[in-house]
Amino acid sequence: MRFAPLFVAALAALVAVPALAANPVNGKKVFDDNCASCHGVDGNSTMAGVPHFAKGERLEKPDAQLLTTIRNGLNIMPAWKGMISDADQADALAYARTLRK
């Protein structure tokens, strides 16, 4: 039992690694091609129920949670698993985080 906190910390570090390696430059292309039609090129969505990234909506959530949403979809958002690589999903998220004003 005394190793449980260490295991949890190691697991958390592994989950955080994709965000550290994400490439927001590539993410802009992925975002523009796949996300901007709903989320807006500048993060200002014009669709009801779609987060405004420029206002920081949903961006307070950790990368692991947002990547799960990207992969599996949520409400009107489609699932991108199998359509966009995991690396491109992480890159698009890294770029979306730059849109917060």
Describe the structure in your own words.
The N and C termini lie far apart (44 Å). The protein has a single domain, classed as Cytochrome Bc1 Complex, Chain D, domain 2 (Orthogonal Bundle), CATH 1.10.760. The protein is mainly α. It is 55% helix and 0% strand. The model has no long low-confidence stretch (mean pLDDT 87).
Helices and strands, in N-to-C order?
HHHHH
Shape: globular
Q: What fraction of residues sit in β-strands? A: under 5%
Number of helices: 5
Report the CATH C-level class.
Mainly Alpha
Report how far apart the termini are.
44 Å
Largest sheet: none
The CATH topology name reads Cytochrome Bc1 Complex, Chain D, domain 2
- Category from helices, strands and their pairing: mainly alpha
| Rg result | 15 Å
Helix content: 55-70%
**Rounded average pLDDT:** 87
User: What number of structural domains do the residues give?
Assistant: 1
Instruction: Give the full name of the CATH homologous superfamily.
Output: Cytochrome c-like domain
**E-strand count:** 0
Return the CATH architecture.
Orthogonal Bundle
* Sequence stretches where pLDDT stays below 50 over 5 or more residues: none
Features:
globular; mainly alpha; 0% strand; 5 helices; Cytochrome Bc1 Complex, Chain D, domain 2
